[in-house]
Amino acid sequence: MFLQILKENDIIYGGNMFINKIKSKELKKPIEVKIDKYYMIKNDDLNIYGHGDTKKEAIEDFKIALLDMYEDLLIHEKYTDKGKEYKKNFLAYFN
Questions:
Q1: Contacts of 87 (CB under 8 A, 6+ apart)
Q2: What is the pLDDT of residues 4-53, one digit of tens each?
Q3: Contact 20, 30 (CB under 8 A)
Q4: Number of domains in the chain
């Protein structure tokens, strides 16, 4: 297993890594993700997943899912207590 800071166009082969930038948006703290041999990338704490035919596609799919969740959390205001806690934890990654 290895850890590495992921830059916009880097491709990582297996193991764990950190994502610290999504498109032009710098993250406040890196998001640790796991990549498996079936081109699935995930972060279980945030419940965000991506997949693709290649690792690069899986990483891009993860980034899209992450941005979609970010935008959804900014739009909606009514949450359960558990939802409020998730939103707080999720948004802690973003500036």
A1: 73, 79
A2: 455 544 545 567 888 888 877 789 999 999 988 788 999 999 999 999 99
A3: yes
A4: 1
- CA dist 46 and 77 (Å) reads 18
pLDDT above 80 (res 3)? no
Tell which residue, 47, 42, 92, 89, has the closest CA to residue 62. 42
The pTM for the full model equals 0.79
| Separation CA 47–CA 26 (nearest Å) | 20
| Pair 3, 16: CB distance under 8 Å | yes
Sign of the alpha-carbon torsion through 7, 21, 1, 49: negative
